[in-house]
Amino acid sequence: MSGHSVFDVSGKRGYVTGGGSGLGRAIALGMAEAGAAVMVSDINQEAAREVAEEIRVQHGEARSLAIDVSQKDQVEKLIQTTTEELGGLDFAFNNAGILKLGKPEDISQSDWQEELNIDLTGVFLCCQTAGRYMIDHGGGKIVNTASISGLVVNSGLTYSTAKAGVIQLTRVLAMRWARHGVYVNCFSPGYIRTGMTAPHLTRPEVEKEMLRQTPLRRLGEPRDLVGAALFLASPASDFVTGQNIIVDGGVTLT
Ligand SMILES: NC(=O)c1ccc[n+]([C@@H]2O[C@H](COP(=O)([O-])OP(=O)(O)OC[C@H]3O[C@@H](n4cnc5c(N)ncnc54)[C@H](O)[C@@H]3O)[C@@H](O)[C@H]2O)c1
Predict the structure, then answer these.
(1) Buried b / exposed e across 211-221, counting CB within 10 Å, b at 16+?
(2) What is the sign of the dihedral through the CA atoms of 232, 49, 26 and 70?
(3) In contact, 180 and 237? CB cutoff 8 Å
(4) Is 62 helix (H, G, I), strand (E, B) or coil?
(5) Which of 15, 29, 41, 42 to mutate to test the pocket of ligand 1 (most atoms within 8 A of CB)?
(6) Rounded CA separation 160/125 (Å)
(7) What are residue 245's DSSP bridge partners?
């Protein structure tokens, strides 16, 4: 590991949900590059396996596990497998999410529920299960992926509601678990090129609008999140909890 020692995560162990693509993949690769052992988890088994293999090819330490974050028993399996195979749980990236767009007046209850189950309940289940382990084992760092959609109005109703929930869930857990040495923070990306945004970016007018809203005049790449991830999972953030780090090229300045 090169660089300042406060960012040293060598020997640290943890998982990334949604690690098979986009931001999760970048976070898993970035944490491994910085010396951590990573459980790459995704509902897409093949994608998770490929990212873990990519890490091992680069001489990092990684395993993979397919789970659905909205299922309590599967989340429990994630924590159990991570702690058994990697030997502990120092960090937890609760990053998996989906986005459905549609008019608020047309959303069905089942679509509302399905999106909340993954984007909010999934984060809750992962936080609770990882948090219990960390409380019993001297602490740890939980990092949730929220979104600027939890702060401003720029996306779907259910998605935005879930992401606002993730930001407040992060703050409440940080307050409750600080005395246990369990840190809980989140970050809020702006417009990033990933599998989630790709279907929308096929329309040039969508990309043009995202660029117009972004003062830095480019869309983010998944790697743009690695600095915030490393900060929040490393000793560099040892006096930071309950925060939402906005990584959006300035979108929310206006
Ligand atoms: N891309 C952006 O512009 C952007 C902006 C703000 C926030 N985010 C958030 O970043 C996170 C990652 O999204 P991304 O942009 O990398 O999208 P992505 O679609 O590339 O990656 C999401 C990953 O989550 C996995 N996943 C979906 N449902 C799951 C489930 N139930 N259980 C486990 N894994 C599941 C998918 O298989 C996929 O690999 C999401 O929480 C998203 O809301 C993305």
Answers:
(1) eebbeeeebbe
(2) negative
(3) no
(4) strand
(5) 42
(6) 19
(7) 187
Token pair 């590991």: residue? 1
Distance 118 CA to ligand 1 centre (A): 10
The pLDDT tens digits of the residues spanning 201-238 come to 999 999 999 999 999 999 999 999 999 999 999 999 99
Matching residue, tokens 């939890």? 150
Two tokens at 230?
A: 């490393």
Task: Give Cβ neighbours of residue 177 (< 8 Å, ≥ 6 apart).
Answer: 131, 134, 135, 183, 184
| Residue range 151-208, pLDDT digits in tens | 999 999 999 999 999 999 999 999 999 999 999 999 999 999 999 999 999 999 999 9
Q: Using the mean position of ligand 1's atoms as its centre, give its distance from the Cα of residue 6 in Å.
A: 28
| Tokens describing residue 167 | 């930001």
CA of 18 from ligand 1 middle (Å) equals: 6
Adjacent-strand bridge partners of 91: 14, 141
Rounded Cα–Cα distance for residues 65 and 47 (Å):
10
> Tokens 């990033």 correspond to what residue?
192
159 is catalytic: yes
Domains of the chain: 9-247 (3.40.50.720)
**Best of 21, 50, 154, 223 to mutate for ligand 1, by most ligand atoms within 8 A of CB?**
21
Q: Which amino acid is at 133?
A: Y
